Amino acid sequence: MTLRIALTTGEPAGIGPDLTATIAAREWPAEIVAIGDPRLLATRAANLGRPLTLETYRREALPQPMAAGTLRVAAVPLGTPVRAGQPDRANAGYVIETLRRATAGCLEGEFAAVVTAPVHKGIVNDAGIAFSGHTEFIAGLTGTTCPVMMLVAGGLRVALATTHLPLRDVPAQITRVRLEAVLDVLHAGLTGQFGIARPRIAVLGLNPHAGESGHLGSEEREIIEPALAVLRGRGLQLLGPLPADSAFTRERLAACDAVLAMYHDQGLPVLKYAGFGAAVNVTLGLPIVRTSVDHGTALELAGSGRADAGSLVAALELAMTLAAARRR
């Protein structure tokens, strides 16, 4: 059976519409349904010189593989006309509605997965809508209490114990309860979605040198190590807590299937250096499949034709793989 995948087109003034038009230039074995404004997609494709035939999405029709140069669109109207590279708060509601539409469709079984193009968090918040990121927002829509962000680049997988927080707020969020919950979700995702029978997870410390035996911080001894001990008692294979500055060596990575970083910029710079433009963001712990690109809205590239669709292609391909695995 052909899969039907929802693709939210992201911040309308960013590169999301460009990337959507770009991926439509090739054939796909699944039906890709773009959630967005069809006039915006048609205009951006025309400006980029990409021939594109837009078809109205019909839920009642059977999913069909996508022919090159075609794209089905579930229409969500813009709040105000768009100029590439110039985001407008009046379109914040539009961005949120595309996410609501795609997520609801996944929960109802209409879509097998959702893939999200990048949004501009600042513009959404400036419009008076509390929004810390896709991960947290979709978790709220699906009633998920412990979503886990994991980025994948080839064989490298880096998950996060905390996501979009100011650095000063991170230590208070590193608790035994949270770490046990995150590692349970990460372990379940690696086994259930990625097919790794007995995943080995490397867990980073919070402080430099993993606390240096308490001389550079006590979180490792008082919080992280006890949490790992509990989980090891339940059979999880956990390494650490490891110093972050030496955890990403070839030898260390060869001994694990994923790395859990304590905060966003502890683990993701390494992963993005290794695979930027081809990495995929996966949200674990959801009742639906959700993947995303590894980059932002790149406003300076919008409408230029220079945006690279590699990460979106990888996100769509991984979404199909994960969705197909769920249906077996």
Strand content: 15-25%
Number of strands: 12
Q: What's the structural domain tally?
A: 2
> Roughly how many Å apart are the termini?
11 Å
- Number of helical segments with 4 or more residues: 11
Helix content class:
25-40%
CATH fold-level topology of the largest domain: Isopropylmalate Dehydrogenase
Radius of gyration: 20 Å
Largest sheet: 12 strands, mixed
> What is the name of the CATH class of the largest domain?
Alpha Beta
CATH 4th-level superfamily of the largest domain = Isopropylmalate Dehydrogenase
What structural class do helix, strand and pairing data support? Answer: alpha/beta
**Overall shape:** globular
Per CATH, which architecture of the largest domain? 3-Layer(aba) Sandwich
Average residue pLDDT: 96
Catalogue the unreliable spans.
none
| Element-level helix/strand string | EHEHEEHEHHEEHHEHEHEHEEH
What is the topology, as strand order, of the major beta sheet? Answer: 3-4-2-1-5-12-11-6-7-10-8-9
Short description:
The protein is an alpha/beta fold and 328 residues long. Helices cover 37% and strands 18% of the residues. It folds into 2 domains: 1-144 and 286-328, Isopropylmalate Dehydrogenase; 148-276, 3-Layer(aba) Sandwich (Isopropylmalate Dehydrogenase), CATH 3.40.718.
Task: Tell me about this structure.
It is built from eleven helices and twelve strands. With 328 residues, the protein is an alpha/beta fold. The chain has two domains: 187 residues, Isopropylmalate Dehydrogenase (3-Layer(aba) Sandwich), CATH 3.40.718.10; 129 residues, 3-Layer(aba) Sandwich (Isopropylmalate Dehydrogenase), CATH 3.40.718. Strands 3-4-2-1-5-12-11-6-7-10-8-9 form a twelve-stranded mixed beta sheet, with helices on both faces. The mean pLDDT is 96.
